[in-house]
Design goal:
- InterPro entries: Acyl_CoA_acyltransferase (IPR016181), Bact_Acetyltransf (IPR050832), GNAT_dom (IPR000182).
- By secondary structure, the protein is α+β, with helices and mostly antiparallel strands.
- Helices cover 25% and strands 28% of the residues.
- It has six helices and ten strands; from the N terminus they run βααβααββββαβαβββ.
- Strand 4 and strand 5 form a beta hairpin.
- The longest helix has 15 residues.
Length: 216
């Protein structure tokens, strides 16, 4: 069963409510007492809806992005595949984070971190704060789980509000083409990326391959 991490309630028009008869007023209040959307962990049953949402939001070329090269063939970081659901339980938003090595430090040791993305919200639900709530839930959960930093490729004006900055990734590289001003980082632990330099590479769990049998 998916855990619910967060929820947001819609606010009714109090003036309009005051003009309703008693029974209707109770029904309307019961409706608005339900959260407008909830944030929870992704389940296997969400895969089809998630992929359809990503195709609509990001287009057919999304598989060609540099970030996708890191995600391909991997499972998201433990507990860090989150979704938003409406009152009917329909998937209306998604964000996932992935285990990576953000280059190495001055001692040559890999710098463990997370790569965030993709973040997407159904076009019919835009403007309701769902993306922001997904971001904050993801950052909070990653912090609780002891991760040191999060990287992403995205629009700086949007992600800066969550603390991301291009200054944290100055000495890091993505595999394949990427825009330096869109390559951003957030330290969950102070100084985590200070010495990080080199190529970002995947380090997460591999997806199981159907039909693959090990012979010993």
């Amino acid at each position: 069963m998916a855990a619910v991490l967060d929820h947001l309630y819609a606010r009714p028009d109090t003036k309009a409510l005051s003009s309703l008869p008693g029974r209707a007023l109770k029904l309307v209040r019961a409706f608005f007492a339900q959260p407008a959307f909830t944030i929870g962990t992704e389940t296997p049953a969400d895969v089809v809806a998630r992929e359809a949402l990503l195709d609509r939001a990001m287009g057919a070329d999304r598989q060609k992005k540099s970030s996708e090269k890191i995600r391909r063939g991997r499972l998201p970081a433990e507990g860090l595949a989150l979704v938003a659901r409406d009152r009917q339980g329909h998937l209306i938003g998604t964000v996932r984070l992935w285990n990576i090595e953000a280059g190495v430090n001055s001692a040559g040791q890999p710098v463990e971190a997370l790569l965030l993305g993709p973040l997407a919200v159904s076009s019919s639900e835009e403007g309701k704060g769902i993306g922001s709530r997904l971001m904050r839930a993801a950052i909070e959960e990653a912090t609780k789980r002891g991760h040191g930093a999060i990287l992403l490729v995205g629009d700086a004006p949007y992600y800066e509000r969550f603390g991301f900055s291009a200054s944290k990734t100055m000495h890091l590289l993505m595999p394949g083409p990427f825009a330096r001003d869109r390559f951003l980082g957030l330290e969950l632990k102070a100084g985590w990326l200070k010495e990080a330099a080199g190529m970002v590479v995947p380090s997460g769990r591999l997806l199981a391959r159907p039909g693959l049998v090990r012979v010993r």
